[in-house]
Specification:
The protein is mostly helical. It has three domains: 6-128, Rossmann fold (3-Layer(aba) Sandwich), CATH 3.40.50.620; 130-162 and 207-292, Serine Threonine Protein Phosphatase 5, Tetratricopeptide repeat (Alpha Horseshoe), CATH 1.25.40.80; 303-479, DNA Cyclobutane Dipyrimidine Photolyase, subunit A, domain 3 (Orthogonal Bundle), CATH 1.10.579. The chain contains 21 helices and five strands. It has helices spanning 20-27, 48-68, 79-90, 103-118, 148-158, 198-203, 208-222, 226-229, 242-246, 252-264, 270-292, 314-322, 328-340, 345-358, 363-373, 379-390, 405-412, 417-422, 431-434, 442-447, 463-479, and strands at 6-10, 32-38, 73-76, 94-98, 122-126. α5 crosses α11, α10 (252-264) runs antiparallel to α11 and α13 (328-340) crosses α14. The radius of gyration is 24 Å and the shape is globular. The structure holds a DNA duplex.
DNA sequence: TGAAATGTTGGGGCG
DNA sequence: ACGCCCCAACATTTC
């Protein structure tokens, strides 16, 4: 082989379009070796639902790369070691990757970069994940933003990192003899025995094409209802792009640009477009928080929350996980999560508030469950959002903002259709009682074929009392 | 990107 | 006609 190859290390950027690292590799004109490394020892290794997605996403990426002309190499082990040995083995001249933002991952990348450079390898890294790098969006006085609204204003003003997307690659040249690869199937990323992913598989299409389809569907059919309808779990007005974004099958820049194209065509109102993009920008904000706060996934940003009188309530946690709290909107959300790997955002806030403020279970327990069960589990979003609900994060919801699961249900699922779908044992209950079955007269329950405490649980806690208790705890840490 | 408690206002019933 | 009370509706405050 005359020419020394260029390696592209794929991580959470599993796409061929507008992928700066992949494009840079192709620009060299050298044979391209794309690699994905499964590193089981890495901090925050993906949860089970994410691994299901990862399998399909990798398989889709491998297909796209193969069609373009290159073979995706699978290897497992400590990522720095694997990459260094691949460089040695192939005598690679270049290594490219798109950056990560969690301290423990940044450290690995930084060390690897300097090691490779010391060995004479050209390493270049890029922004393949965010609208803007964290250090590009700074307050007037020079630090990172800690409040969302000014952050969003600054980001809008600055605009996205690239105005023009890099096109989908149709041709990449790989080496004549590609390096050895493990088999994706041998990684056992898919569940067996039991296979709990059947409904997840019916709900989602992992991969770059699936991401494109989802974006087009949203832009054509739903975005104009987004601003008013996005809070309705019984409707389909959200983009559902989160897992695709999480794995980088699509980037926020592509979304930004597609939305602006639709606006320019007059197909999408400014209000709807900006509302949606501001939600996409929350993701950038979360990555900022993660980048500047090493402990974001583990420790409250507001340190006094470490002293909050949390309870160790195993039964409560179990009921919450299984969707058996006796509060229909909470249970519907938790079961939607379990069955489909995803939960509507409004309901995420409701179930999180319930775990933290009604059950007084530490937010990290909820974060861990979401990490394992969400197909869109994203370290920055997950950590920042749990801290937001708990009231201990940056620009957080105040602690005393406690959701009432009944009134939230009545407000955002007024007919009870969302509850009916995911809590089928309540499906015959009239809308009037569906968010508070314990208030239904005996005759109504009988008519609906419900025996509280048997076919559906009684509330595991009295919300009004729980609210008082949570506020008491807040007083404690405030005075401390 | 709350909810509950408390305060204010104004219309209607009624003596 | 008038004052008084009740209470719904709305606004403000508090957690």
């Amino acid at each position: 082989m005359a020419e020394r190859p260029a390696i592209v290390w794929f991580r959470n950027d599993l796409r061929t379009e507008d992928n700066p690292a992949l494009h840079a590799a192709r620009e060299t004109g050298a044979p391209v070796i794309p690699i994905y490394i499964l590193d089981k020892d890495i901090a925050h290794f993906p949860g089970a639902a994410s691994l299901w997605w990862l399998h399909h996403s990798l398989s889709s990426l491998a297909g796209d790369l193969k069609n373009a002309g290159a073979k995706l190499i699978y290897r497992s082990g400590k990522s720095a070691d694997v990459l260094k040995s691949l460089v040695k083995e192939t005598n690679a001249e270049h290594v490219f990757w798109n950056r990560r933002y969690y301290a423990k991952h940044v450290e690995i990348d930084k060390d690897l970069k300097s090691d490779l450079k010391a060995g004479g390898v050209a390493v270049e890294t890029f922004n393949g994940t965010l609208l803007r790098e964290p250090w590009e969006v700074e307050t007037a006085s020079g630090g990172p933003y800690r409040v969302y609204t000014p952050f969003w204003k600054a980001l809008k003003q600055l605009g996205p990192a690239r105005a023009h997307m890099r096109p989908n690659l149709r041709k990449i040249v790989g080496p004549a003899n590609p390096p050895k690869s493990e088999k994706l199937a041998s990684w056992n990323l898919l569940p067996v025995n039991p296979d709990w992913a059947t409904e997840i598989a019916e709900t989602w299409s992992p991969g770059e094409q699936g991401a494109r389809d989802r974006l087009n569907h949203f832009l054509n059919d739903n975005i104009n209802d987004y601003a008013d309808g996005r809070d309705r779990p019984d409707k389909d007005f959200t983009s559902r792009l989160s897992p695709h974004l999480s794995f980088g099958e699509i980037g926020p820049l592509q979304i930004w640009s597609a939305v602006h194209d639709k606006m320019a065509d007059g197909k999408v109102s400014d209000k709807a477009a900006m509302k949606f993009l501001s939600e996409v920008a929350w993701r950038d904000f979360s990555y900022n928080l993660l980048f500047y706060n090493d402990d974001l996934p583990d420790k409250p940003l507001r340190e006094n929350f470490a002293n909050y009188p949390w309870r160790d309530d195993r039964d409560g946690l179990k009921a919450w996980r299984k969707g058996e709290t006796g509060y229909p909107i909470v249970d519907a959300g938790m079961r939607q999560l379990w069955r489909t790997g995803w939960m509507h955002n409004r309901v995420r806030m409701i179930v999180a508030s319930f775990l933290i403020k009604d059950l007084l279970i530490p937010w990290q327990k909820g974060e861990a469950w979401f990490w394992d069960t969400l197909v869109d589990a994203d370290l920055a979003n997950n950590s920042a959002s749990w801290q937001w609900v708990a009231g201990c994060g940056a620009d957080a919801s105040p602690y005393f903002r406690i959701f009432n699961p009944v009134s939230q249900g009545e407000k955002f699922d007024p007919e009870g259709q969302y509850v009916r779908e995911f809590v089928p044992e309540l499906k015959n209950l009239p809308a009037k009682y569906i968010h508070a079955p314990w208030k239904a007269p005996e005759s109504v329950l009988e008519e609906a074929d419900i025996v509280l405490g048997k076919s559906y649980p009684n509330p595991i806690i009295d919300h009004a009392k729980a609210r008082e208790r949570a506020l008491e705890g807040y007083k404690e840490i405030k005075s401390a």
